[in-house]
Design a protein that fits this description.
The chain has 175 residues and is α/β, with parallel strands linked by helices. Helices cover 32% and strands 16% of the residues. The chain folds into 2 domains: 55 residues, 2-Layer Sandwich (Double Stranded RNA Binding Domain); 84 residues, Arc Repressor Mutant, subunit A (Orthogonal Bundle), CATH 1.10.10.
Length: 175
């Protein structure tokens, strides 16, 4: 792991997002301050591409992120599942926990897939919000606390994977 991380933040319709970028790539996206315990440096050039792409995504102008991801904080099977999600579930699509387990090689049961989604260090970019239960939304640990499922639903509606609810405003999340 590099000795430092550059951090930046962006106001979005689903709350303020914080990003952390090492010299390898994006290592953390969160609604709280960065979860990466490295020396923080002031390097807006390093975070600019990520923040620009996130802004484009929330404006509906970007459907795929093409930035390097620093996977070093993930374990082998966790990384395999997250990379499978990243490469096989596109904007506007969703997949069930069980389907992602199969796509990932059946090494992790559906319940384990849920745990891996909850520990995803780079949500939005690696779209864990697109993984749903066979009988509904499932869970989501993104957001600012108690609004996780509302954030997941908002993201899926914005991407067109769910039909909009009555009164849905794409400009902001309503709790």
């Amino acid at each position: 792991m590099s000795a430092d991380v550059a951090i930046g933040s962006l106001e979005t319709p689903v709350g303020r997002l914080h990003v952390a970028v090492t010299d390898v790539g994006l290592v953390d996206v969160s609604w709280a301050e960065t979860r990466v315990a490295l020396r923080v440096v002031d390097d807006p050039v390093r975070t600019k591409a990520v923040l620009d792409m996130l802004a484009e995504y929330f404006r509906g102008e970007r459907k795929r992120f093409d930035i390097p991801i620093d996977w070093r904080l993930t374990s082998g099977v966790q990384r395999d599942v997250l990379e499978t999600l990243y490469s096989t579930v596109d904007y506007g699509q969703s997949v069930t926990y069980g389907e992602l387990a199969v796509r990932s090689g059946d090494r992790v049961p559906a319940r384990g897939i849920g745990s891996i989604m909850g520990s995803n260090p780079v949500p939005i970019v690696v779209p864990c919000h697109r993984v749903v239960a066979s009988d509904g939304l499932g869970g989501y640990s993104g957001g600012t606390g108690r609004d996780g499922l509302a954030v997941k639903q908002w993201l899926l509606i914005m991407e067109g994977a769910l039909p909009p609810t009555l009164g849905w405003d794409p400009g902001r999340l309503e709790l």
